[in-house]
Specification:
The chain is mainly alpha-helical and 100 residues long. 47% of the residues lie in helices and 6% in strands. It has a domain at 4-44: Orthogonal Bundle (Histone, subunit A).
């Protein structure tokens, strides 16, 4: 548990003016957080290693959309909405400029 002196020192560093009630509540909250940190620190990473899942590919297979897919025609509509193209790229207007 954090002492009152440590809390007062933190309050000075953070430039906080705390009432007695606020100070006690903050002291309890910080002590609770530090308790959780101690619990996490006590867990060994080696103890968790056997529970880790085997490496696997989590990406979907790259395949063309099926005919029944509702997004199949939206892709064409988005492409048509862009007035300019350069090769396979859709060109948008510049929105960021360098200050010169």
């Amino acid at each position: 548990m954090i002492s009152r002196e440590e809390l007062d020192n933190l309050a000075v560093l953070a430039r906080l003016k705390l009432t007695e009630r606020e100070a006690e509540k903050l002291r309890e909250d910080i002590s609770s957080i530090l308790g959780y940190v101690d619990q996490i620190a006590s867990v060994s990473a080696e103890a968790l290693e056997p529970q880790a899942p085997a490496h696997r590919n989590v990406l979907r297979e790259d395949a063309p959309r099926a005919e029944g897919d509702p997004l199949i025609h939206k892709e064409e509509a988005v492409r048509k909405a862009f007035p300019r193209r350069e090769k396979d790229f859709l060109v948008v207007r510049q929105i960021l400029q360098k200050d010169e």
